[in-house]
Amino acid sequence: MRLILVDQLTEKRVNFYPLALSRPIWELRCGMTSLAEKLIAKVGAGDVACFVPPYMADAYRRRSEWPVNDPANLAGDDLLVVSARVKAAGFGIEPTGPSQVTVDTDGEVLYARIARADLARLNAGSIDGLLDSAREKLPSADAELPTWNYTWDLVLENPEQLVEDFAAAGRSGIEGAVEEPRAIRGDAKNVYVAPGASVHPMVVLDASEGPVYIDEDVIIHPFTRVEGPCYVGKKSILFGAKCREGNSIGPMCRIGGEVEESIIHGYSNKYHDGFLGHAYVGEWVNLGALTTNSDLKNDYSSVSVVLDGKRPVDTGSTKVGSLIGDHTKTSIGTLFNTGAYVGAMSLITTTGKLLPRYIPSFAWLIEGVVTKGFGKSRFYATAQEAMQRRGCQWTEADEAMWNEIFNMTKPERMEAVRKGRRVLSGHRG
Amino acid sequence: MERSQVEQRVVKVTCQVLGVDAAMVQPDSHFVFDLGAESTQSVELVAAFDGEFDIEMDEDAALQVETVGAAVEFITASLA
After folding, report:
1. In chain A, which among 314-373 make CB contacts under 8 A with chain B?
2. What is the full per-residue pLDDT of chain A (429 aa) written as tens digits?
3. What are phi and psi of A287, to 5 degrees?
4. How far is CA A287 from CA A238, A319, A336, in A?
5. What 3-state DSSP class applies to A338?
6. Which of A373, A378, A425 faces B48 most closely, judged by CB atoms?
7. Nearest CA in chain A to B18
8. Which of these, A3, A365, B6, B26, has the minimum number of CB atoms within 10 Å of its CB?
9. Touching B: A residues 144-163, CB under 8 Å
10. Rounded distance, CA A313 to CA A279, Å?
11. Does domain A152-428 have CATH number 2.160.10.10?
């Protein structure tokens, strides 16, 4: 059986922006692992291939261990085709068996189990053709499958998922160095410190409310408090941080200040003081000193998020922080509003005011208004520099993908820029 | 639009954004070294010129413009 992960350019994809602008949805994380890792573990797949939106295929191919957008993988074996939005935990379908398909209310295929013998009567020349013909010709299973519908679903389920992933990992104990005096609260079997990790003196690992997993080569500086459930990814460094419960961090992150129930992808920095709560932060993000996000409204009402620059979406939750896209940088003293959408490749310079709830990708925010700034080439130069500093490479494929993202996000950016011009001319009087 | 009109309006916008006197704003004035434009003010200038002349200056090209005279040339060409 071959597992085929599918992430297509559907309307629902926008619900995972800005994070999914530059990666397939299954690369988003919840708990200790990505959504793909959870699906693979759930179905026990040893053979995996994937189909991503064409504009990101070359860039993703360079960092993926699986074949990407190669129709040759739609033949020669039983297939289990699964949408990136399907929750692994609720996926109780046997990986092999008679062919069947399940679609959601919008007709999107959530999964198609296709016996090898049935491939001949389907259009397996492309993923679109395969899904269309499967929808048309295969019996419907009518299975109720839970799905991820918005980025904040991942944030809100993160604490619970961390507990499950810690149990699934099956590791416990101190294999790295934890220097004295140390304080481990709660049941010590709910703490795992991996080989190569270095926990300095005067660090509190509090597993009284959930497990704490410190991965390989993590360094935790004195006066850091880590509350479980929590996962700190490989080679991350915590600088006297107040890590409240429910965080997934890393790898290679630098974290200080207060962080609560947030997911932070690799190579992102929040060195300094400032509060980040119920946030989802992409890769290569740098949050300047005192950058803070609100995750709770003063009237305790449900938080809404503007995903497309126009229409607020009610999250149904009273706690949602910022969604911050890859490569975005903030200046000192940045204040993000509750449920802020902060696009990818943006640069935020502030004057201490609370910022707009929607900041498009590739925006330069100055005096609280969106401008075109120095254009995309300056962002690319900064990205290249940031990646080189961590031993990574900005490739032509990356640049081609980001050029497409620049074009895709242009309408909402230019609308914001035009609004910004009116505000700036008002300032000038 | 006449070049002289473009020049007048470029001077007006430059004075407003950078907070300098019109007398300081000469064709060979360098936005950074003579008029003290910081990086964020350069971005504001581009936004202000876009708004003033109702044009869409290419960001990368516009930010290569270093003097007031070069800005006048650039905008005049954009309006042509």
Report:
1. 349, 364, 366-367, 371-373
2. 999 999 999 999 999 999 999 999 999 999 999 999 999 999 999 999 999 999 999 999 999 999 999 999 999 999 999 999 999 999 999 999 999 999 999 899 999 999 999 999 999 999 999 999 999 999 999 788 999 999 999 999 999 999 999 999 999 999 999 999 999 999 999 999 999 999 999 999 999 999 999 999 999 999 999 999 999 999 999 999 999 999 999 899 999 999 999 999 999 999 999 999 999 999 999 999 999 999 999 999 999 999 998 889 999 999 999 999 999 999 999 999 999 999 999 999 887 788 999 999 999 998 888 988 888 998 999 999 999 999 999 999 999 999 999 999 999 999 999 888 877 777 665
3. -105, 115
4. 14, 20, 11
5. coil
6. A425
7. A428
8. B26
9. none
10. 16
11. yes
d(CA A371, CA A415) in angstroms, rounded, equals 10
**B40 with A349: Cβ contact below 8 A:** yes
Q: Tally the residues of chain A.
A: 429
Residue ranges per domain, chain B? 3-79
Provide CATH 3.90.550.10 ranges for chain A.
2-149
For the beta carbon of residue A306, count every other beta carbon within 10 angstroms.
17
Distance of CA A61 to the CA centre of its chain: 18
Nearest to A137 by CA among A99, A111, A172: A99
Tokens of A148: 């991820």
- Euclidean distance between CA atoms A361 and A282, whole angstroms: 13
Under CATH, to which class is B3-79 assigned? mainly alpha
Structure tokens belonging to residue A189: 């079997």
CATH number of this structure's domain A2-149, picked from the four choices 3.20.190.10, 3.90.550.10, 1.20.120.1760, 1.20.1050.10: 3.90.550.10
